[in-house]
Amino acid sequence: MGWALITCTVAMALASAAMVRAMIGRGALDVPGARSSHDTPTPRGGGIGPVATLCTGLVAAMVILPGAIRPAAGLLLACLVLAAVSHRDDVRQGDFRVKLAGQLAAALIVVTCGLTWPHPQGGLAVAMAAVMGVAWLIFATNAMNFIDGLNGLAAGSMLLGSLAIASVAGPGWIGCAALALAAGLAGFLPFNYPKARIFLGDVGSQPCGFAVAALGLALGSGGWSAHAVHAALLAPFLFFGIYADVFFTLLRRARAGERLTQAHRGHLYQLAQRSFLPAWAVALVEFGFVGIGWAAWHLWPANPLASVAVLVVPQVIWAVAVLRRAAPLLR
């Protein structure tokens, strides 16, 4: 069984790499703009490879594993909806409202299939968990989409996060889907890091970002207990560096009176890359934050306050260091 799993994982990674390689010559060009971190036109749409392996893993889970049909089918349908809407946006920049509508539809599908935050039984608690789940999925999807423009940052972070989710989930549909996504991202990453020959594009960053957030919810969807809450915190802890960057940037721009929908290069990772670190090094810092999130998550059952400190303090230090070094860019 172990060798069969390894063989399937390697095969999916190679299949993803083949699809990504084909997209380099066919994908729409991402021309550098007001929010870009790259300087030359670079193809996008490489996310088709990881999304295809994710969907393959979900289909396999539905066929092989008992009890997986409803949640796996819901996540599969949600990712296909997002991929369709996002691919259209990659080819031809569309209205943000259409993109948001696709994200809302995907989130509602997943929540309807039972993937929500842990909650006690009761009508109001169920409704609140559903609303929080939808809001969380939309935020997490957009956060990963916002950071796709830097070499390896999104794909590498999600690869590490998917492997962590798979290790916690173990055998079952969640582990199967997470491992399939990790295989697809492993096939994509050599084309995106350290030198970016292609980006995930919306067709990859949105469904993949949505999937890791949804799989995180699925870990804690078993009921209302300390174990369920701890399990549901895995994805927020793993990707806390990315989510904190996006939230902090939105808050900082809102306080400055800037229009939040306007394209910009004001994320912390972008300021770091523009002022004092090469793109590959910024990605390594963010990969380190995934590791810190993994360690903080394991510390949570023994000492939640220490766990939060381990998670938050490095982000504060990073933000202060970046803002100081990038001060000339912000004047």
UniProtKB/TrEMBL annotation:
First-tier enzyme category under EC: transferase
Segments traversing the membrane: 72-88, 100-117, 124-147, 159-186, 231-251, 277-299, 305-323
Chain positions recorded as Mg(2+) binding sites: 145, 202
GO biological process, one term: cell wall organization
Annotated compartments: Cell membrane
Bilayer topology annotation: Multi-pass membrane protein
Keyword entries, A-Z: Cell membrane, Magnesium, Membrane, Metal-binding, Transferase, Transmembrane, Transmembrane helix
Highest taxon above the source species: Bacteria
Signal peptide: none
Family annotation (Pfam families): Glycos_transf_4
Enzyme Commission (EC) number: 2.7.8.33
One annotated Gene Ontology cellular component of this protein: plasma membrane
MF terms (GO), sorted A to Z: metal ion binding; UDP-N-acetylglucosamine-undecaprenyl-phosphate N-acetylglucosaminephosphotransferase activity
Cofactor(s) required for function per UniProt: Mg(2+)
Name of protein: UDP-GlcNAc:undecaprenyl-phosphate GlcNAc-1-phosphate transferase
Organism: Endobacter medicaginis
